[in-house]
Fold these 2 entries.
Entry 1:
Amino acid sequence: MNTVQDDAVMAGASGTQSVAAADGRTLTIAECGDPGGFPVFLLHGTPGSRYGGQGLASAYASVGARVITYDRPGYGGSDRFRGRRVVDSVADVSAIADSLGIERFAVSGGSWGGPHSLALAARLPERVTRAACQAGVAPFDMPGFDWFADMDAVNIEELGWALEGEDVLARNIERVASRMLERVAGDPSKMISDSVQLSEADRAQMANPERREMIRRDINEAFRHGVWGYVDDVLV
């Protein structure tokens, strides 16, 4: 461990810690749930941060899960890793697990965190006990696969920018991020509900003040030092 900052506000969270990656970059992590429970790495979506999912700390604790989250490079307090690949998350999570004295763990990734979860399971079979990929993304260059079929229009637009190059993507993501930050400053639920149709159960969740605060904190932290985490996620 390098440094520890006690900035936790979520019930059951242990605060923010900084860990050195194998190449010397800083990775910023947080924990919540049961400190003595079975370790589970929760990999955030795009954009996101280590605060994503921490609103469920009490639920994790109730099932005996020690949940570890971290900012992917370029998000929150983690240094950017330009040109990173999905598989590079294996070394980063390994460094975090080693620093915490964790040998075996489960991993769960949501949205664009999903492929990173699968990479960990594939490359660390001796350490990863179980893996979940929720609403993940397939490899872009799968032969004979229509990658854009039935994909959300927002994602298609972002990926179109990526195909035009990093400069085009970064300019447009700056604009997207600015709009997202404006929305979370007001009503965070609109960041999702304005772009997709939500079920009654989803709308009830989005009306929960704690859920809204979690979204606000997550997105503000994601863009604390700019948009490069988001840009690199789309490129990768």
Entry 2:
Amino acid sequence: MMLDRRTLIRTGATAAAIAPAAGALSVAGRPAWAANTIKVGVLTDMSGTYRDLNGPASVACARAAVQEFGPRGFGIEVVFADHQNKPDVAVNIARQWFDRDGVDMVVNLAASSVALALAELTREKNKVAIATSTATSDLTGRACTPNTIHWVFDTYMLAKSTGGATVRAGGDTWFFITADYAFGHALERDTAEFVRAAGGRVLGGVRTPFPGTTDFSSFLLQAQASGAKVIGFANAGTDTTNCIKQAAEFGLTRRGVKLASLLMFLPDVHSLGLAACQGLVCTETFYWDLNDRTRAFTKRVRSQAGDVPLCMNHAGDYSSVLHYLKAVADLGVAAAKADGAAVVARMKAMPTDDDAFGPGRIREDGRKVHPAYLFEVKRPEESHGLFDYYKLLQTTPSEEAFRPLAEGNCPLVRT
């Protein structure tokens, strides 16, 4: 049967589709090919704090995966919705998608609270959830389920790469500026452990009130007074960008202090500018200019997304959707729609390979593994084009980058 591509508008969400040609009969108001159509829902932040790290570019990357996968004898639709970073909103949208709209898989998820809530719902409904922009390592630990996969990054990987690799690169004394809540505490604790394990020392730290802190000058002065070679920012979002801006104003990097953001992305660098971010180190698992394959992927996506800075979250949406569709094709559409856990099991059994991350695999606990890269942000004069912001310092191999399987306490892992 000949297939065509069309763009659908449904209930306020845009859907990119590969579907059987027009003319199929309707059954109860739905086209006859609906039973032979896989529906992917990009559940993300379209309007809030994390829009640039997810949002429209994530939808474009999911569509790019569908286009690359191509016609394989079944229909594919991509829909999206804005969960506003609220778990209750996300659960309500996903429940409607699963119960009424025939969505088979949700991807992206963003905020950890959203991903944890969706993990439970997808297990209840026997669908598939793939977290591509979520930090918590609990998704492959105490909260792991047979219906959930964690792509791209997590707190353990960030701490190991940015902590341990920075010490090996010469940054052997640290001072932490930490957001005073659970996420910040965990990120500081894990990073400090890797710093010490690599032979470094922690000279001190300070907890900053969260939320609401905008002036970090006194904390930065304490960090400078400690004499530490590295200031580690165990925070995220606006807290991180404010820290970096104010550190630039004080000229800390010009005095030889290394800034280490424990959770930062290329769009953040783009927003702040190289003058403020130069010399900062951070970890991502994807960079558009890493190799020929990442450049080819970026070129394809920009034809849909435009000239926007792509980060590892966006790449994860493409990579995970592509691998999911490969597993559906291998399993069969009817079986895939009937049993999300079976699709996840098939995804784990199949090696991964795509232009964003290269070859990899999905472990028993649902952790997708691939290398982690420690980058340094270039000086303005080192940049030679649009989004030419990073230079590679260290690579952590895929089998070393993430928490060992036996340490996560995932109930799916047989000991």
